[in-house]
């Protein structure tokens, strides 16, 4: 088919990295027309693919999977200048896949800006190596595009393809796009340490410009630790800590969520055994005063999501789910200095190097009156009892609209430094 696939193991394929819109990507294929397919290097979030028993990616505007909506509403909105950089009418082969090595029929081809890697494309990434050595492996659970019956293909934490789970199971998402034919590289040699920089991407930050002019995904140093920009809303910049909270011996700290599934609402268990108290008292008070003064209270949405439900319910009322950004926001909101990522939010996922160096983390989103959502060490999204389980956290904070960038490039290797 005249498609050039990049195929090989991690030691071999280290020349296809791209930095675009605050995210690191891997080029996976070059097409005869000059377009190039690329997938994010890490997991961006975790949600259910769709409702139980419904494994279709897209049927119509009134029958879109959760996955299609998240990719082409929530995630697409975070891509800078995407109208000129990616192919907005890309074709995604979402046909049923009986196995992973067979080239797909074109029975279900969807047109959309953003999709996922399909089963055959994933197979081609390791055809010349082995399924346990592909350069795309990350030792976490993440979705591929295609169904088989009512199940969805995914890559598990042991780096094996798997189709044993239904569409309502909740794995990681690695969005995939196609670069336009006229895209040129400004700099870089394609390695992870020096990725290609795209012409037309967000310009480098100028010192003394405000942080709220930057984009989702860029990295920031805050209190001498690494954070990542989640979003900018009404001038307020939300950050997620890139690593877990650790003790003085660098051991990951684990605690109960709270005494109620509404984070921050507890009144009878105010002590350090619970994350909602610990984060907003003990941990907050340990911050350097310079950084503490940069913070402002943020709104943390506490919409309940039960099993098989739309990820949008984390911020939307049950009615009015047309799009995440335009829905009527839920009335259940907690305002505080330190919160947690919510279900379906950017970077509400493991951000490490695989299951063997990871711990389960709480999310702020309730599952029920007694359970909250969490991301386990394999990056599988699950609900757990808030009173019976201790988990780690990657806290969220919000910064004032006046916070300025003093240096850095917003990359993981060279994050922004800040001042008031």
Description:
The chain has 420 residues and is mostly beta strands. The protein is 9% helix and 28% strand. It contains 5 helices and 28 strands. It has helices at 66-75, 82-85, 119-124, 275-286, 289-292; strands at 4-5, 17-20, 23-30, 36-40, 45-48, 58-60, 63-64, 91-93, 109-111, 142-148, 151-155, 161-162, 170-173, 176-179, 185-187, 196-198, 219-222, 225-233, 236-241, 298-301, 333-336, 338-339, 361-366, 371-375, 381-385, 396-399, 404-407, 417-419. The strands form 9 sheets. Strands 1, 2, 3, 4, 14, 15 and 16 form a 7-stranded mixed sheet that branches. Strands 17-18-19-26-22 form a 5-stranded antiparallel sheet. It has a 3-stranded antiparallel sheet with strand order 10-11-12, with no helix packed on it. Strand 6 and strand 7 (63-64) form a beta hairpin. The chain is globular and about 65 Å long. 47% of the residues are buried.
Backbone CA Rg: 21 Å
Number of helical segments?
A: 5
Q: In this structure, how is the largest beta sheet organized?
A: 7 strands, mixed
Structural class: mainly beta
Dominant shape: globular
Strand content: 25-35%
Which residue ranges are poorly predicted, with pLDDT under 50 across at least 5 consecutive positions? none
N-end to C-end Cα span: 55 Å
Q: Quick one: how many beta strands?
A: 28
- Mean of all residue-level pLDDT scores: 95
Oligomeric nature of the chains:
single chain
What is the helix fraction of residues, given as a range?
Answer: under 10%
């Amino acid at each position: 088919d005249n498609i050039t696939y990049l195929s090989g193991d991690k030691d071999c394929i280290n020349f296809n990295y791209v930095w675009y819109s605050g995210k690191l990507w891997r080029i996976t294929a070059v097409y005869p027309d000059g377009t190039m397919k690329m997938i994010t290097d890490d997991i961006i979030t975790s949600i259910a693919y769709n409702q139980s028993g419904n494994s279709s990616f897209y049927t119509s505007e009134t029958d879109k999977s959760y996955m299609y909506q998240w990719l082409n509403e929530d995630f697409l909105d975070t891509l800078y200048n995407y109208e000129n950089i990616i192919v907005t009418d890309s074709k995604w082969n979402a046909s049923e896949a009986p196995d992973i090595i067979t080239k797909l029929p074109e029975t279900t081809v969807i047109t959309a800006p953003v999709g996922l890697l399909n089963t055959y494309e994933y197979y081609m990434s390791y055809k010349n190596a082995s399924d346990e050595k592909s350069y795309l492996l990350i030792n976490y659970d993440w979705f591929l595009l295609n169904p088989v019956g009512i199940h969805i293909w995914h890559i598990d934490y042991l780096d094996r393809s798997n189709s044993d789970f239904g569409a309502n199971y909740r794995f990681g998402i690695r969005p995939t796009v196609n670069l336009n034919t006229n895209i040129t590289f400004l700099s870089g040699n394609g390695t992870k340490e020096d990725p290609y920089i795209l012409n037309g991407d967000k310009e480098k930050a100028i010192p003394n410009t405000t942080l709220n002019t930057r984009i989702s995904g860029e990295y920031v140093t805050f209190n001498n630790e690494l954070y990542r920009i989640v979003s900018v809303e009404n001038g307020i910049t939300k950050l997620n800590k890139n690593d877990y909270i650790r003790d003085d011996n660098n051991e990951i700290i684990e605690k109960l969520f709270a005494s109620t599934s509404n984070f921050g609402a507890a009144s009878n268990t105010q002590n350090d055994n619970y994350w909602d108290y610990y984060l907003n008292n003990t941990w907050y008070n340990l911050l350097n005063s310079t950084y503490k003064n940069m913070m402002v209270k943020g709104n943390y949405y506490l919409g309940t999501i039960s099993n098989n439900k739309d990820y949008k319910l984390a911020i939307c009322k049950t009615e009015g789910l047309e799009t995440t950004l335009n829905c009527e926001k839920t009335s259940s909101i907690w305002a505080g200095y330190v919160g947690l990522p919510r279900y379906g939010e950017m970077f509400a996922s493991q951000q490490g190097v695989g299951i063997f160096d990871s711990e389960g983390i709480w999310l702020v989103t309730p599952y029920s009156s007694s359970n909250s959502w969490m991301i386990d060490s394999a990056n599988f999204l699950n609900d757990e009892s808030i009173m019976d389980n201790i988990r780690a956290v990657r806290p969220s904070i919000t910064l004032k609209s006046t916070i300025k960038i003093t240096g850095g490039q917003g990359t993981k290797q060279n994050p922004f430094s800040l001042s008031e």
